[in-house]
Amino acid sequence: HAPYFPAPKLETWWIVVSTKDGALILADKIATRQKHIDHRVKFVAPPQAGKYVFNIDLKSADYVGIDVKAQLPMTVVSAANLPEYKPHQEDLDLDDEPTLFEQVMTANADDSSDDDDDDDDQDDQDD
Q: Angle 104-110-112 (CA atoms, 0-180°, nearest 5)?
């Protein structure tokens, strides 16, 4: 209860992922009113295959003394051992479609060429 706080405030949590040496890998902010949260984090795996230990810290921005620290061991496999990535045919077909940027630029080019034609027509009428 904070009667003098000027506005409602959501509880804020931070998930901090770091290496065993303490180098920061990821910091993700979570602000929600839910009591139970299922939150996934993604980060780039180390370049070398092998076993690694990461520090996971769950920190509260609002409460003192309820932070949680844990170590998470992970095994990184080499890229050669991963299954081959095969994109879906519909995704491949999208490569043939114009992007939003290309559509806008094409529309702008058509508009400017129409304007140029109108100017030429008016010049011809003046003569």
A: 100
- Rounded Cα distance between 51 and 74, Å, is 6
User: Can you tell me which residue has the tokens 């520090």?
Assistant: 55
- Judged by DSSP in three states, 12 sits in strand
Q: What is the pLDDT of residues 42-78, one digit of tens each?
A: 888 888 999 999 999 999 988 899 999 999 999 999 8
Helix (H, G, I), strand (E, B) or coil at 47: coil
Contact 75, 50 (CB under 8 A): yes
Residue 95 is which amino acid?
D
Integer Cα distance of 118 and 120 in angstroms: 5
- DSSP class of residue 38 equals -
Q: Count Cα atoms within 13 angstroms, Cβ side, for 123.
A: 6
Q: What is the DSSP letter of 3?
A: T
